[in-house]
């Protein structure tokens, strides 16, 4: 029996080799050759479905990115999705970083990736994104072109021990902000993407403020940071944001933004499309800068 290939731009589920783990992912590809590949990395306690919200047609980063000429690959981090059974305790950030490098190289062997890879990450996924960007690439891995992170700072606005001691329901307001920021049915549909946070992730939470500066100093691609208007997990006053940006001393460009009318889970709210378009616009700027440098012989 013949199998009909899915239409270009459709979102489908695939598997990737992440070293000793098989990682699940959601993939959307454009109608023609991709401009570049957007690698989307979800936060703690969610899944790759965070970037393909179903409560409203405007939420999905995957369909929007494919419509604009990008391949979009949203990966279930180690300990989530298909790898949860093999790694029920999760993996450390260093181990997740190694798995993600391997998965990107494996993806590039079988798919067109365009000019390279842009990392777009949320919350705990931003910790992995910085770990990934600060580490060495592996053989066959396409170049990293830029990094966009939402919902991640350096210093917690709460006691990080709450991640280990407080029940998940206690974090509702920190994760969501306010009901009015989200389309109807968001919280019904969210059940399909919410997952337990693996214990090894929880155990590392308290170490993050000390690790941030060390990782940020090793990032050598343009960086964009976004904080929701109602962001309750992280300190993000003006002085704090200036300090954050200064930590990326090796990055050729750093910008910090605030997303109006949004809670921590920006990509599931009414302003998801606005945020995603801004992130993709930033990626376009990175591509334009790359082209200009190549034309000038740089």
Write the SSE topology.
Elements: E1 12-18, E2 21-28, E3 37-41, H1 61-67, E4 71-75, H2 93-110, E5 117-122, H3 124-134, E6 144-150, H4 162-165, H5 172-176, H6 186-189, H7 199-204, H8 208-216, E7 223-230, H9 238-247, E8 254-263, H10 272-295
Parallel strand pairs: 3-4, 3-5, 5-6, 6-7, 7-8
Antiparallel strand pairs: 1-2, 2-4
Helix pairs in contact: 2-3, 3-8
Task: Give a short synopsis of this structure.
It is built from ten helices and eight strands.
User: Helical percent range?
Assistant: 25-40%
What does the radius of gyration come to?
A: 18 Å
How many beta-strand segments? 8
- Provide the CATH top-level class: Alpha Beta
Number of helices: 10
Question: What are the low-pLDDT stretches, counting only 5+ consecutive residues below 50?
Answer: 1-5
- Give the neighbour order of strands across the main sheet: 1-2-4-3-5-6-7-8
Structural domains: how many: 1
Largest sheet: 8 strands, mixed
Stated plainly, the CATH topology is called Rossmann fold
CATH architectural type: 3-Layer(aba) Sandwich
Give the CATH H-level superfamily: Alpha/Beta hydrolase fold, catalytic domain
Tell me, briefly, the overall form.
globular
Class from helix and strand fractions: alpha/beta
Percentage of residues in strands: 15-25%
Mean of pLDDT: 92
Query: What is the terminal separation in angstroms?
Result: 52 Å
The helix/strand series, from N terminus to C terminus, equals EEEHEHEHEHHHHHEHEH
